[in-house]
Design goal:
CATH superfamily: P-loop containing nucleotide triphosphate hydrolases
CATH topology: Rossmann fold
Strand order of the largest sheet: 7-10-11-3-12-13
Structural class: alpha/beta
Oligomer: single chain
Shape: globular
Bound molecules: adenosine-5'-diphosphate, magnesium ion
Number of helices: 10
Number of domains: 1
C-alpha cells in the first residue's frame, strides 16, 4: 500500500448533486501538488470532503487513504489526529476565543492520542508557542486577538500559518489560500509554507486558480480539475501553459 495521501475514484455529491466524478491522486510524503481549475469545478468540494464536512456525501467506490489507512469513515477530529490539515477559503469567526487559546485547544485535540506530546500547563504551551511565533516573526499581540475578529486577509493567513506550525500535520490542503491577498502577502504566505514544509516535511495540496502562488511554491505535480474530473496532470510547466491557454480548451 502506498505511503501518502491517496485518493482513488473519489466521487462526492452535495444535495444529490454529483460534483466530484472520480478523482484519483497520490501525494507522497513531502510532495507539493497543485490543483487548478475554473470556478465551480469542485476544488473546494474536494477540500471539504477530505475534511469530513457532513454536508458532503462520499459515494460508494471512493477511496481516500492516508498512509495506508482509510479516512472516509473517520470524523473530522479523527482525521486531524491522523495528521490531515485543511485551511479554508473562509475561516470562521469565533468571537471571545483568543488566538492563543484556540491554538492550544487545537493542539490538545490534535495530539490527544499521543499523551507524551501534550502540555501539562497553559504556561508550558505558551512557551512552546512563543518559540514558534519567534521563528515566524509573529507578534505576541496577535496571539491575544479574538479569533478572526476583524482580521485582515493577511492576518487570516497568518493564523493559518500558525495553525500549520502548531499542528505539525502530515498532509496539508490549502484552499485558495492566495485569494484576496496582494502580491507581497502571497509571497509571505508562500515563504512561510515553504519554511514549514522543509522543517515538517508534510505533503501539500495547493488549490488555486491563479498561477501566482505557484511561482513561490514550486509544485511537483499539477492537476487541472474541470467539471469534477482531473482533465490533465503534469509537472510545474503546466502552470505556465495554463496561464497562456486558460481552461476553456479543457472544458469542451
Ligand atoms: P470551486 O471551489 O472549484 O470553485 P466548488 O467545489 O465550490 O467549486 O463547487 C462545485 C459545484 O458544487 C458548484 O456547482 C457549486 O454550485 C456546487 N456546490 C458547492 N457547495 C454547494 C452547496 N453547499 N450546496 C449546493 N451546491 C453546492
Ligand atoms: Mg473554491
Amino acid at each position: 500500500m502506498a505511503n501518502g495521501l491517496q485518493l482513488t475514484n473519489l466521487a462526492v455529491s452535495i444535495d444529490n448533486k454529483h460534483i466530484l466524478k472520480g478523482v484519483s491522486l497520490l501525494v507522497k510524503p513531502g510532495e507539493l501538488h497543485a490543483i487548478m481549475g475554473p470556478n465551480g469545478s469542485g476544488k473546494s468540494t474536494l477540500a471539504y470532503a477530505l475534511a469530513g464536512h457532513p454536508a458532503y456525501t462520499i459515494l460508494s467506490g471512493s477511496k481516500a487513504m492516508l498512509n495506508g489507512e482509510n479516512i472516509i469513515e473517520l470524523s473530522p477530529d479523527e482525521r486531524a489526529q491522523k495528521g490531515l490539515f485543511l485551511a479554508f477559503q473562509y475561516p470562521v469567526e469565533v468571537p471571545g476565543v483568543s488566538v492563543q487559546n484556540f491554538l492550544r485547544q487545537a493542539y490538545q485535540a490534535r495530539f490527544e492520542k499521543q499523551p507524551k506530546r501534550l502540555f501539562k500547563t497553559v504556561l508550558e504551551f505558551r512557551k512552546h508557542l512563543q518559540k514558534i511565533t519567534d521563528a515566524l516573526k509573529i507578534s505576541q499581540d496577535f496571539l491575544k486577538r479574538g479569533l478572526n475578529e476583524g482580521f485582515s486577509g493577511g492576518e487570516k493567513k497568518q493564523l493559518e500559518i500558525l495553525q500549520l506550525a502548531v499542528l505539525e500535520p502530515k498532509y496539508v490542503i490549502l484552499d485558495e489560500t492566495d485569494s484576496g491577498l496582494d502580491i507581497d502577502a502571497i509571497k509571505k504566505v508562500a515563504g512561510s509554507v515553504s519554511v514549514l514544509q522543509k522543517k515538517l516535511k508534510f505533503g501539500v495540496i495547493v488549490i488555486t486558480h491563479y498561477q501566482r502562488i505557484l511561482q513561490y511554491l514550486k509544485p511537483d505535480r499539477v492537476h487541472v480539475l474541470v467539471a469534477g474530473k482531473i482533465k490533465q496532470s503534469g509537472g510545474a510547466d503546466l502552470v505556465d501553459e495554463l496561464e497562456k491557454s486558460g481552461y476553456t480548451a479543457l472544458e469542451e
